[in-house]
Write a sequence for this structure.
């Protein structure tokens, strides 16, 4: 929520976030996932980079999919930017809850609007504005280092190297891990 509102305020754009309605869960990206799944079904992939190559080559026309490789440095901590403390539209028992929302709109003036039904008009969510000024706080990286995996998972991945080509062993050897 903080990241989208921050983007809306800084770029001067309205961002609408829609939630899936039960029973109507087809999304635009479903065909993309299906295409990539078909491409990866019969190929051997030994590292995350293999999924990038397969995803790019899954569709050629009208053009290949654009794929961005994300590292731990990409993720930012927006929690210091507390524009609002909650997106729940109600307070009391029986009032609407977050689960009742079907859409949230982030506006450049720092306000949130919501809908409980797609046919409704936008309603202002103004009950829980933070006392901190908008933009207070600093956006810092969420992670300083790649997240470690459990030692047991690391050990299991090491066992898999027996069937993985040696060219990929360094990737598995350098995975950070923590004791179980």
């Amino acid at each position: 929520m903080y990241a989208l509102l921050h983007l809306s305020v800084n770029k001067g754009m309205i961002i609408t976030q829609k939630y899936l309605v039960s029973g109507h869960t087809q999304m635009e990206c479903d065909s993309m996932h299906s295409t990539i799944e078909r491409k990866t079904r019969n190929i051997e992939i030994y590292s995350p980079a293999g999924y990038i190559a397969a995803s790019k080559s899954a569709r050629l026309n009208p053009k290949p999919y654009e794929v961005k490789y994300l590292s731990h440095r990409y993720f930012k901590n927006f929690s210091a930017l507390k524009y609002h403390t909650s997106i729940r539209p109600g307070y009391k028992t029986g009032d609407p809850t977050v689960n009742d929302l079907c859409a949230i709109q982030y506006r450049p003036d720092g306000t949130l609007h919501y809908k409980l039904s797609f046919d409704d008009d936008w309603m202002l969510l103004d009950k829980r504005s933070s006392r901190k000024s908008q933009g207070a706080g600093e956006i810092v990286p969420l992670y300083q280092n790649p997240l470690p995996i459990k030692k047991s998972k690391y050990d299991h991945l090491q066992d898999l190297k027996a069937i993985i080509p040696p060219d990929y062993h360094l990737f598995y050897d350098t995975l950070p891990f923590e004791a179980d």
